[in-house]
């Protein structure tokens, strides 16, 4: 039984890890922007 699909798994895991880190950074930036905008709106009111 030849395992021809073995190099696909590390590539998929690397892609998923990269997309996960990119999504987490985007989420962190969105949360920071939301907090800062809400703080500015609260301070200006």
Question: What report would you give on this structure?
Answer:
This protein has 45 residues and is an all-alpha fold. The protein is 82% helix and 0% strand. It contains 1 helix and no strands. The protein is rod-shaped and about 70 Å long. The termini are far apart. 0% of the residues are buried. The mean pLDDT is 88.
Number of strands: 0
SSE string:
H
Secondary structural class: mainly alpha
Percent helix:
over 70%
Distance between the termini: 70 Å
Mean pLDDT: 88
Characteristic key phrases:
mainly alpha; 82% helix; 45 residues; single chain; rod-shaped; 1 helix
Quick structural summary:
This protein has 45 residues and is an all-alpha fold. Helix content is 82%, strand content 0%. It has one helix and no strands.
Break the fold down into its secondary structure elements and pairings.
Blueprint: H1 8-44
């Amino acid at each position: 039984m030849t395992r021809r699909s073995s190099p696909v798994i590390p590539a998929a895991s690397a892609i998923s890890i990269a997309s996960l880190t990119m999504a987490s950074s985007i989420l962190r930036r969105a949360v920071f922007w939301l907090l800062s905008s809400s703080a500015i709106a609260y301070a200006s009111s």
